[in-house]
Amino acid sequence: MAFTVTPWEVSGDIDYNKLIKEFGTEPLSEKTLKRIEKVAGELHPYLKRKIFFCHRDLNWLLDEYDKGNKFFLYTGRGPSEKVHLGHLTVWRFTKWLQDKFGVELYFQLTDDEKFLFKNDLTLEDTNKLAYENALDIVALGFDPKKTFIFANTDYGKTMYKQALRVAKKLTFSTVKAAFGFKDENNVGQIFFTSMQSVPCFLPSVQKGKNIPCLIPLAVDQDPHFRITRDIMPKLGYYKPAIIHQRFLPALEGTGKMSSSNGITIYTTDTPKEVKNKINKYAFSGGKDTVEEHRKTGGNPDIDTSYQWLTFFEDDDSKLKNIHDDYKSGKLLSGELKAILIEKLNFFLAEHQKKREYARKTLDKFIIKD
Ligand code: TRP
Description:
Blueprint: E1 3-5, E2 10-12, H1 16-23, E3 26-27, H2 30-40, H3 45-48, E4 52-56, H4 58-66, E5 72-77, H5 85-101, E6 105-109, H6 111-117, H7 123-139, E7 147-151, H8 156-167, H9 172-179, H10 187-197, H11 202-207, E8 213-218, H12 222-235, E9 241-245, H13 271-281, H14 290-296, H15 304-312, H16 316-328, H17 333-361
Parallel strand pairs: 5-6, 5-8, 6-7, 8-9
Antiparallel strand pairs: 1-2, 3-4, 4-9
The structure holds tryptophan.
Residues 75-78, 108, 110, 113, 196, 215, 217, 221 line the site of tryptophan.
């Protein structure tokens, strides 16, 4: 079945194995996982469950780490709207990496990008959204001494100088081929990958030595960094390593959850909103009647509530029980939904408290010119 994964569009029933081939990434092997476990002392559930499923140059990055050459983390957010649960999953894992490897994180808020790509948003809108979104990031508990969050337009003097160096090595035809841009695209869009590339080497510029970079991301962002990776050696820097995440599936069943693809659960939703959205929209792998379900069981592989629990229930044995009970027919679809609702609302109650508190501490994380 046809599917599309680009930074601008994700749709269809995504075949992740096919994507690995198309993008030319490496599947995460048991051997690489073992190496991570050796340093971290454990494996994050997202690694065990292959929610992060492929990478670029991760073994090289771990070689450097073993030699004492620490990396830094880089990820980002395009502030076009409120933060939803899909975004949080990548950042939770990023926080785990920061804790386990004791490394710095550079977090880019691309208010410039969303201004250039969204017709209905002004620069004031996207800049404001950037700092609202940053509250969700801070709420996850990143280390204020090791975390640097910046909005591109407020860090423009620093960013622009470095983006120019990338832009000089980047042709229109490369951007066209990577993103399918046409002559009608505005020139800001054509330039933009230069800005998204900068954090891959900015710490190296600032600290005056080459530092490896690891980018945790949702797999749709990979095309930007294929370009960056080609250019970095030309500027004398390492290619960034990347670890790629699958999408939190859309509640209704195919593609990724996003506001342009149906129902979205935001980090600021009330318990009632969460409950209603899941009950009403979450695609069920259950059977039409209770009788039939009890007899033949449900299908967790296509059931969104179960799939979401693989992102939000960290306890492996609890997850396995839910899986087995649903498959055997012991657990009904409504009951499975109730488990997810409770899990999410518990998580969100905490998150929302921390998010409000983050208004007080945000300044400790922000860098500007
Ligand atoms: N372009 C990304 C988005 O629209 C935001 C982003 C900037 C990003 N830098 C990044 C995402 C690095 C992942 C990694 O969401």
